[in-house]
C-alpha cells in the first residue's frame, strides 16, 4: 500500500496517456487515408484537364491549317474556272 501512495496516481495517468497516443495514432491513420484518397482524386482531375487541354489545343491549332486549305481550294477552283473559260 505504501508503494501505491508513492506513485501518486502516475500508473493511472500512464494508462490514460497510452490510450490517448493510441487514439491519436488511429486519427493519423484515418487522416492519411483521406489525404491519399484526395490525392488520387486530384490526379484523376489533373489527367482529365490535361486531356481536354490537349484536345482543345489540337482543334485550335488546326484551324489556321484548315482555313489555308480551304483558301487554296477556292483559289484552285477559281483558276480551273478561268482555264475552262479560256478553252
Short description:
With 87 residues, the protein is mostly helical.
Commentary on this structure:
The structure is a single chain. The protein has helices at residues 2-7, 10-86. The chain has 87 residues and is an all-alpha fold. The protein has one domain (8-86).
Q: What percentage of amino acids are in beta strands?
A: under 5%
Number of strands: 0
Q: How many helices?
A: 2
Into which percent range does the helicity of residues fall? over 70%
**Assembly context of the chains:** single chain
Radius of gyration: 38 Å
SS-derived structural category:
mainly alpha
- Helix and strand pattern: HH
Main sheet record: none
Global shape: rod-shaped
Question: How many domains, in number, for the residues?
Answer: 1
Average pLDDT, rounded to a whole number, is 90
Task: Pick out the low-confidence regions.
Answer: none
Cα separation of the termini: 127 Å
Task: Describe how the helices and strands are arranged.
Layout: H1 2-7, H2 10-86
